[in-house]
């Protein structure tokens, strides 16, 4: 049946949004830009992953709050979303490799930030490598006994936890360096930045802080053999991280 499906257009129609808006009814024109942004977001792997993440944890909260009612359909959807996200991450080592090359070519001037960057690269490499192995084993693509597969899952999640911890340290270091600049009388350099740029950087910092703070309890939970969090708390913490991340991604979509 799939072979009989028609070929869908890979690109949006050439007419600019402004022209479309003037030629369609006002009620439709009002949602045109939103639909165009959503399409642009979902057409990128990272954007599609963010959309799936935005569904995964809220759905988990919904299922947990209605645990007395059988919801096999929603549970199957949650499992499918998780599976698709891991599948999309399979080539992630390529991005980490380019990240390492970029850091090597242009390392942070601060020694602490440089050390953190390489620590995160190492943690991300371990995470992605072990997740790929465990995922492929779970789908019977490579042979791995269940004990080794379980260890691969556990250690990949611990590596994720290390990455999150290092990112929190990085954010603290960034604020520390900004404070030192002001104390050394270098506020004139900061003032040269436009107000919009400073606000954008501050918002980005807050977003990253909140996202990592929400992920931190999850990394501790998943890094343990028997984590203390219920599905409700996992969904709640994950929802905070996904909603905050989704807002930032949506805001940065360019048409």
> Strand-and-helix sequence, N→C?
HHHHHHHHHH
Number of helices: 10
**Percent helix range:** over 70%
Shape: globular
Count of distinct strands:
0
Structure description:
Helix content is 77%, strand content 0%. It is an all-alpha fold. The chain starts with 16 loop residues before the first helix and ends with a helix. Mean pLDDT is 84; it is low at 5-15.
Summarize the structure.
This protein has 255 residues and is mainly alpha-helical.
Task: Supply the key terms.
single chain, 255 residues, mainly alpha, globular
Summarize the SSE layout with pairings.
Layout lengths: L16 H7 L2 H17 L2 H21 L6 H17 L3 H14 L5 H28 L7 H38 L3 H5 L3 H29 L7 H21 L4
Helix pairs in contact: 1-2, 3-4, 3-10, 5-6, 6-7, 7-9, 9-10
């Amino acid at each position: 049946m799939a072979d009989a499906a028609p070929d869908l257009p890979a690109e949006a129609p050439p007419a600019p949004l402004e022209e479309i808006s003037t030629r369609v009814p006002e009620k439709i024109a009002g949602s045109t830009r939103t639909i165009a942004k959503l399409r642009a977001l979902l057409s990128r792997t990272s954007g599609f992953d963010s959309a799936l993440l935005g569904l995964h944890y809220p759905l988990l909260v919904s299922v947990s709050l209605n645990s007395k009612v059988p919801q096999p359909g929603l549970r199957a959807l949650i499992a499918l979303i998780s599976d698709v996200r891991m599948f999309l991450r399979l080539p992630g080592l390529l991005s980490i490799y380019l990240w390492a090359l970029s850091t090597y070519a242009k390392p942070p001037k601060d020694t602490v930030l440089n050390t953190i960057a390489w620590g995160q690269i190492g943690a991300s490499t371990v995470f992605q490598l072990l997740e790929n192995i465990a995922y492929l084993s779970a789908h019977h693509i490579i042979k791995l006994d269940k004990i080794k597969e379980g260890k691969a899952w556990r250690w990949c999640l611990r590596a994720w936890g290390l990455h999150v911890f290092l990112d929190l340290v990085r954010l603290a270091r960034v604020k520390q360096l900004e404070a030192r600049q002001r104390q050394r009388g270098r506020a004139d350099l900061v003032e040269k930045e436009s107000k919009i740029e400073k606000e954008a950087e501050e918002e980005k910092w807050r977003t990253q802080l909140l996202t990592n703070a929400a992920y931190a309890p999850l990394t501790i939970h998943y890094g343990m053999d028997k984590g203390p969090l219920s599905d409700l708390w996992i969904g709640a913490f994950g929802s905070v991280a996904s909603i905050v991340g989704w807002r930032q991604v949506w805001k940065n979509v360019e048409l």
